[in-house]
Specification:
Chain lengths: 273, 393
């Protein structure tokens, strides 16, 4: 049995804003009956271009119904620009969280919102490269890329939980893996400049959370000795200290992780201490 | 809130008589039947009795019964034994609608180089027996077909299938977990080589089952260890479980008539009333060849998990073959194999009864379900599209 929060249950049992808005300004349908869930969203703006009325109809499980209901409550009274800022994670958070396997319900809500706003802005949504990756559930490359970026996904399983892609025959797993690699390799968004104290703190956190666990699996360990500018001085411990592959570990794992999580300008040096 | 339990194909309530029979073996007679002292050894007699009770339910001889831990173990033991005793044969015949205990095992064996034929079923969930016969080759080590389907209750003609296999010198196993105790089974009047059952589907506790192995059948043990079960299944006997299963088998034999008359009447009433009160609903699977306790009904344009949770609010327990309840993203493999359209497959609900269900419980479900379905249809974007929606696949 799924562990739904009380808020999910409450929105499922008493969904808000069910129906279809008359003469809507924007309307969209996402999902399909074959996929097991579908959402029809319609909204109307007031004279100040704020969402005055928004309604939904959903075919799907309890969390699909609850996320649709939550979405309508969240965007009511917002301008379209404000509404566009609502992410699928915001929807899940509004409900006190969703089971991982049900995150695709929140993504469906976000997609319906985007499509309805595109519909308002004029004509059919333009998807120049609507390349279908997952044939079973009709998920496009763009949808997968967006879910990876917005939710920081790293595995095929996560992509399936968020988009359903890959949840059928499994024939697209390699393609999804390639998309993950490509998106992850993209330049990360510009980070604000870090103070020295912030930088050292983030390096420590990254070592603790991202690096140490995988070294410890092989009986090794690492210690932060000093940070001089962008030079990170570390000492290896345990099996790492005597391991010939340690240099490779330092470049591949430690530098990659620190560049990924802290700053792309960092270099890593090993010191003996 | 009162619980209305209509999920007996998932598991059943332990019968009061079964529990009573078991308790002394936790409290007082906890000895090991293999021990030399009287205190332990005396338990062996009770295990013998239980074996006789279990054998009697299926018309077997006591020595043809091997106690196991569950249906899955029985299925694994049977299929693996056939492969071990026929090392020159590399082919398995089974169906697309088997329980995961057989289906996943065969998929695993297929990865190890065995060839697996999964026979399709028609829209009623029935096999094409000509196709079955043609699938058996000199390389076939075993054919394994379930007696009754857990999701739809549909019955396979396994006795006939076993004869066909026997004529070609091929071993035949059936997963009879859902059939035993619900329909009469007599191993004396068929040629099935192996049959597995699980206790908790017939009011015994979880963690006990048996595998029937016909006398003279070559058998290679799955669990190798002590001399228990005459060396065919190592491991200290689960004495309370075995005694409980024996009692449950005795009760099942005595209740067979109730199962096929009272339970069947309640199921038929529930089914008929639901179909007549709720439009766009239909039964999945053959209604002719079916267990007396099971009905699998689809409600078009609504999703099964949502139905289950709304029923749960009234204390009604059932199951669904929808994607959202299976933990995967696709509806049940059984409904897909039957070609049930997506509009129906996602909204399927299985009600499975037992002798403990009452007329009042059926009336309660019949009263509550129509408003549950219409509430969800009120939310569904497909329902308002009316007749047009019927063509959506």
């Amino acid at each position: 049995m799924w562990e739904y929060t009380d808020k999910v249950k409450e929105h499922f049992l008493n969904p808000r804003n069910v129906g279809e808005v008359e003469n809507p300004d924007g309307v969209a349908e996402v999902g399909s009956i074959a996929c097991g869930d579908a959402l029809k969203l319609s909204f109307k703006l007031d004279e100040r271009k704020r969402i005055k009325d928004v309604k939904f109809k959903t075919f799907g499980c309890a969390s699909a119904i609850a996320t649709s209901s939550a979405l309508t409550e969240m965007i009511k009274g917002k301008t379209l620009d404000e509404a566009m800022k609502v992410t699928n994670q915001d929807i899940a958070a509004y409900l006190g969280g969703l089971p991982q396997e049900k995150m695709h319900c929140s993504v469906m809500g976000k997609q319906a919102l985007e499509k309805a706003i595109e519909n308002y802005k004029g004509g059919p949504p333009v998807e120049p490269e609507a390349k279908i990756i997952c044939e079973c559930f009709g998920v496009t490359e763009r949808e997968i890329e967006q879910a990876i970026r917005e939710n920081n996904l790293t595995t095929v399983e996560e992509v399936t939980n968020y988009t359903k892609a890959g949840g059928g025959c499994g024939g697209c797993h390699d393609a999804i893996r390639e998309i993950i690699e490509r998106v992850r390799a993209e330049a990360p968004p510009a980070r604000p400049k870090l103070s020295n104290v912030q930088k050292i703190k983030m390096i420590e956190e990254t070592i603790e959370r991202e690096i140490r666990p995988s070294l410890k699996k092989d009986g090794g360990d690492i210690e932060l000795v000093d940070v001089i500018g962008n030079r990170v001085l570390v000492a290896t411990r345990g099996t790492c200290a005597t391991c010939k592959a340690a240099e490779l570990t330092l470049t591949n794992l430690v530098r990659a992780k620190l560049r990924d999580f802290v700053s792309p300008e960092l270099t890593v040096e090993e010191v003996t201490q | 809130m009162k619980t209305v339990y209509l999920d007996n194909n998932a598991t059943t309530q332990v019968a009061e008589e079964v529990l009573e029979a078991m308790l002394p073996y936790f409290r007082d007679f906890y000895g090991n039947p293999s021990s030399m002292h009287t205190f332990g050894g005396q338990v062996g007699r009770n295990i013998r009795e239980a074996r006789e009770q279990a054998a009697a339910l299926v018309g077997a001889q006591p020595e043809e019964i091997i106690f196991t831990s569950c249906g899955t173990e029985g299925d694994n033991a049977a299929i693996r034994s056939a492969l071990m005793t026929h090392p020159d044969r590399r082919h398995i015949v089974t169906s697309r609608v088997e329980h995961p205990a057989v289906k996943s095992l065969c998929a695993h064996l297929s990865g190890q180089g065995y060839k697996v034929t999964e026979l399709p079923v028609d829209k009623d969930g029935l096999l094409d027996m000509t196709q079955y016969e043609r699938s058996l080759t000199p390389d076939t080590a075993i054919a394994s077909l379930m007696w009754a389907n857990n999701e739809t209750g549909v019955l396979f003609p396994v006795e006939r299938a076993a004869e066909i296999a026997a004529e070609k010198g091929i071993m035949f196993h059936t997963d009879a977990v859902q059939a035993v105790g619900k329909i009469p089974i007599n191993m004396k009047s068929n040629v099935i080589d192996m049959l597995s059952i699980s206790g908790h589907k017939l009011h015994a506790p979880k963690g006990i089952g048996f595998l029937y192995v016909r006398k003279g059948t070559r058998f290679s043990p799955f669990l190798i260890g002590g001399h228990q079960e005459t060396g065919r299944r190592g491991g200290t006997e689960n004495t309370p479980g075995i005694v409980g299963l024996g009692k449950a088998c005795e009760l099942a034999a005595a209740n067979m008539k109730t199962e096929n008359q009272t339970v069947k009447r309640l199921r038929d009433k529930l089914e008929a009333e639901i179909l007549s009160r709720i439009p766009n609903s239909r039964v999945n699977g053959s209604r002719l060849y079916r267990l007396p306790n099971t009905t699998n009904i689809s409600f078009e344009f609504v999703e099964g998990e949502a139905i289950l949770l709304l029923m749960d609010d009234y204390g009604i327990c059932a199951s669904s073959g929808s994607a959202c309840t299976s933990g995967s993203l696709q509806p049940s493999h059984v409904l897909r194999a039957m070609g049930v359209p997506f509009t129906m497959a996602h909204g399927s609900i299985r009600f499975s009864l037992s002798i403990y269900n009452t007329e009042e419980e059926m009336d309660f479900v019949i009263e509550k379900l129509p408003s549950i379905i219409s509430k969800l249809r009120g939310l569904s974007p497909y329902w308002t599209m009316g007749d047009q929606a019927c063509s959506v696949q």
